[in-house]
Amino acid sequence: MATGNLGSLHVDLTSLKELTTVKTGHKRSSSDFTRNNNMQSTLFNFVTWLLVFLLLNACCSQVPKCNNCCNSYKEINEPRRSVKSVWKRGQTPLCDRRILKGWYRFTSFNGTAKMPQTSVVDYQCGTHNPIWLRDGHPTKYNENVARAACVSSFGNSCRYSITINVIRCLGNYYVYFLKPPPFCASAYCAGFGVPCPYGKEGEYPDCYDPPAQFSRDSLGLPEITYVPLELSEGAEVDDDDVPVSLTCKGALLNGIGQWKNVTYLIEWFAEGKNLTTEQICDVQQGNTHTRPCPNEAQIVSKLHGLKYKIGQWINSTALDINLYTNLGNCDLQVYPITITPTIPVRKTILGLPELTFYTPKEALIVNGCQVKLEQGTKPVQILLKANCQQKGQVSTGLKPIVPQITYQNSAFWNHQISLPTIWVNIRDSTAIENCESSGDPHYYTLPNLKRNSFDFMGHGDFRLYKNSERYFEVQTRQWTCNGGVTCNCGVALRDHNDVIEFNCCNDLMKRDETTPIRVKIRSNKCLSPGISIKKSQPGVTSAKYQAGLIMRITMTM
């Protein structure tokens, strides 16, 4: 390193695979080109896609087979599809974009609903772009006919058309072979009656608010006991064959046992499977009980011994987890781990329980160390990958990832629930390399490129390193430091969308030993988890990334 090189930066990159020194010029921002190209590409793709849809619809339609479709249809019971249902701002419009091709029957309004044969206008039928039947219904029974269904859009009652099939069935109802429309929000019209107001259920004028789930905080913890078996004197019992009935009791809190409009759903689960479901205080929707139900301080449900097998675990302490995976140090592969509750998870006023994972330093959970469970027994997934540790810092062999449940102020979901440990096998299989730029400036490249150093005394901004596989890039800035000699005065690091700048340069791009190293976060958002910046001593700063890359910046005097 040259002497008298005040204010220069020593840049040392660890765990890199390539080195480039390419002068960058002043060009229009690549993001401008990307934005324009994306807009043009999106518009072109939309037009092309729509044309392809119309061509396929018009030219390549085949007559769908019925195959007893008058009895094996799918039902659509949606009164909002009526021509008398008008979409209003704030309502969620109906959309059939995700409907699967097949035979359907509209069963609203007591099964009398059918598609309108006269034109409809925008915002009718509970959607933005309603679809109606232009060519009318068939008059003969069991006749499979093709009809044009018009999409009303932008004031044109038949801006687009979709070829569907219609059959008149015995019983004087129709089944339709429906296809998904090309965009949202567009839906098929059906029916001419008056539907209940938006957000209500029932049949007009007998409309009511839909049942609402309320917090389980008004229910006590369930207690499961067995029902003692009553035997006659002298009778012998085979322990393997005798069915043992179980009783589940749950306290009713906050006075809800005196309510008249609550239905209690009791579900028995064993090893992640539903054994039986019982409803207590069930009442027809829209009605209430004449007396408080159950009018007691607790609810009781029984499980007959024939509903389960001896040896099954019926408890609330288990999660079904994929327990083992294999990680190589610095490996890019991501391993999904699925976690499935074996009893239903219910939401309370405190929200849903979360899982926190304690990992060894060699492993990294990509989607964060906390995962929120979903309602019911829906599985959740974490994504596991290897961290990238330096030589000598990797501890190989089996390592535990310990999950722990966190649910504030819950007597049911708490730390006492023992969750299975996830085991990972750590392999030290990836070589770690170093490259360096120091002084005025001397470059020491990766060993697989060149063993000896070389000098490059450019003035301006240069790309020092780029790894397209890991979306990582390093650029350096060189200023004049001693006559015709240049030195590093700044470095910018980009990892995906995270950009960090270390800089002691000035506007004149000439050495100034009084300028300290300034650290700036150039990203619009906060840095991603796993990125750390550390100042170990005056003039020495380092940045560490998830991929295991470590950048050390040393200011030499």
From TrEMBL:
Keyword Signal annotated: yes
Matching InterPro entries: D8C_UMOD/GP2/OIT3-like, Dev_Signal_Modulators, VWF_type-D
Keywords: Disulfide bond, Signal
Pfam families reported in the protein's UniProt record: D8C_UMOD (PF23283)
Record-annotated VWFD domain positions: 433-557
GO cellular component: cell surface; extracellular region
GO molecular function: signaling receptor binding
UniProt keyword 4Fe-4S, yes or no: no
Protein name, as recorded: Oncoprotein-induced transcript 3 protein
